[in-house]
Design goal:
Radius of gyration of chain A: 25 Å
Oligomer: homodimer
Number of strands of chain A: 11
Structural class of chain A: alpha/beta
Order of helices and strands of chain A: HHHHEHEHEHEEHEHHEHEHEEHE
Strand order of the largest sheet of chain A: 2-1-3-4-5-11
Strand content of chain A: 15-25%
Helix content of chain A: 40-55%
Chain lengths: 336, 336
DNA sequence: TTGAAAGCGATACCAG
DNA sequence: CTGGTATCGCTTTCAA
């Protein structure tokens, strides 16, 4: 709990010199800087957060709003929270949590109390009420995800269309002429933003390449993945030699299990590519090729943009798309 | 972004009166209070967080340290984070997230920078490194969970022994004389704190009542819950007429599925009670009686204690146990 | 390259 | 019951 005053005295300089030495906002002679750094170390000095917030223009805190919705997938969500925190720490920023009701009311609160420098918006819904709020408050905000109405907002997301495109292209290059998509349950195509984008990219690219494209949106409510199993059978009977998966963790497992039960080898008989997964597709047996949604990539970019906004730099509003990357784990091959 | 000065002017009083009116630390005439409250509302005034931290003795922020361990169960963890946040808001406190490496280093950092008033420790391991840290820093801290060495620390947790005791007692009252425990995988009994406590409570109470008690700690690595299924078969063949479950979500499902396959009815042929679950056991088919671990209960108590510590009140160090509650969903009955 | 001093916006003590 | 004001610890402008 040493104060800047004590550091200054110990180093034999003024407090303003200490402040500048620490912030680096003014050139300090190497010698002086040495003495100050040593004093800081010896006293284990850390600037008082409150004083810094009051005197400076920065709080060094970002709010993270995350309404835990009923359909929120906990592991994926946790990965994003973690990634955000890691990204923020790289700029010496902390994360303040705004959950549930507070996800909206809290945005107002922290904005007018000057508790944070900006807001990171997680778990974005198509008709998210935080869209209006973000426009109303004076704080910079960055959405991790894309609401339907995002005029003037800064959003970050994986380029899901390009991801599906990439998956289809890789399969086409190997010679596949008929590909199936195992998607989320139908409801996800109304309540979420990205499933339709995957589907669109899938269908568009297939059309461009003159490839047969079939889509199955199995309901996952069935026992033991009955819906998913039926979807797989339908797609294969329809002539598909490859499957693109855009579904959750367990559905991936069910697909592999169904193929195994049918005695079809991966990738010998059927090729598989996962799109937009946040879990580790290499952990399956066999490992599955993937064009993943990488939380750290999204959150790094989001925090970068938030920092720029805090600095007062101009940031183009709109959706900042992250380029998809293909991860090869050996689950695709030419069709039999 | 109105300031206290403007509120004072608008209400025709001094700033100290405004401050006292808001904090309630001094009696204000009803009339004056009215005018101030109106001014506050009209200007949408909120005290500046930085100024408050600097001038007052409080930051109104708690740090929440949560190292996302490899074996952290995401949904349960999320429930605790959420519950902590809700509990804190009731005292007008916010939650600052300290994740991963920062879970420890961050404790030091926020302590010496005066960013928070206290630390809530989540996801506690038996040999948690944050134990030493908590003793070293000057901030109040409350552990949600119990480390092996908790001398002088304030900890909060469900009374797992009493929970198992309660489950056994209920079954004994109905006439069961042989009960089986389906537990976590063996490794959990070394790496976690509470599984042994459930086991101990289970065995002790059974011994007291002269009831046969068998324990199975199935490995969950097997395909389709093979380990859990084998455990259920063993216990029933051993004569058990009731099962106490202390295992994860999916293992619960497997137990029910195995019983169904064996053609045994619940609770007609076999009674079942879940102990220490954080998920909704009433959602199974059939619904399962439960002595749950309720995140909100733990976190409410933890925040209560943290508040008392912040206020300077004396809080008895040691483990503050939460009394278990039995939730009846109709899955227990007299033995056949 | 460095120092002195004016705030930042509340809280809470000392008066009245 | 209400007001004036010292104070919190730092950042940053103005001077040297």
């Amino acid at each position: 709990m040493a104060k800047i005053h004590e550091v200054a005295k110990a180093a034999g300089v003024s407090i303003s010199t200490v402040s500048y030495a620490l912030s680096g906002k003014r050139t300090i002679s190497a010698e002086t800087r040495q003495r100050i750094e040593q004093a800081v170390r010896e006293l284990d000095y850390r600037p008082n957060a409150g004083a810094r917030m009051l005197a400076g223009r920065r709080t060094n805190i970002f709010a993270l709003t995350e309404p835990f919705r009923a359909d929120t997938h906990a592991p994926a969500h946790m990965a994003f929270v973690l990634a955000t925190s890691i990204a923020a720490r790289r700029f010496d920023y902390d994360i303040l949590l705004l959950t549930e009701e507070e996800a909206s009311a809290g945005m107002r609160r922290v904005a007018s109390s000057g508790l944070v420098d900006g807001v990171l918006v997680l778990d974005v819904a198509p008709d998210d009420e935080r869209v209006d709020l973000a426009r109303r408050i004076s704080l910079p905000s960055v959405f991790i995800g894309v609401p339907d109405d995002h005029d003037g907002l800064v959003c970050v997301d994986l380029d899901f269309e390009a991801a599906a495109d990439l998956a289809v292209t890789r399969l086409a290059v190997l010679g596949h002429r008929s590909i199936g998509l195992v998607g989320h349950p139908p409801v996800a195509y109304e309540k979420s933003n990205f499933p339709p984008r995957v589907r669109a990219g899938f269908e568009r690219r297939a059309a461009e390449l003159g490839i047969a494209a079939a889509v199955a949106l199995p309901d996952q409510a069935g026992q033991r993945g009955a819906g998913v199993r039926a979807a797989v059978r339908d797609l294969l009977e329809g002539g598909a030699t490859a499957l693109v998966l855009h579904c959750d963790d367990s559905a991936h497992g069910v697909v592999l299990d169904e193929l195994a039960q049918q005695g079809r080898a991966v990738p010998g008989d059927v090729s598989i590519v996962s799109v937009g997964a946040t879990f580790d597709t290499a952990a399956f047996h066999p490992p599955i090729d993937s064009v993943p949604l990488v939380p750290q990539a999204s959150c790094d970019l989001a925090v970068d943009l938030a920092m720029r906004l805090v600095e007062g730099d101009v940031v183009a509003p709109g959706v900042h798309l992250i380029e998809p990357v293909f991860h090869d784990h050996g689950s695709i091959a030419p069709p039999p």
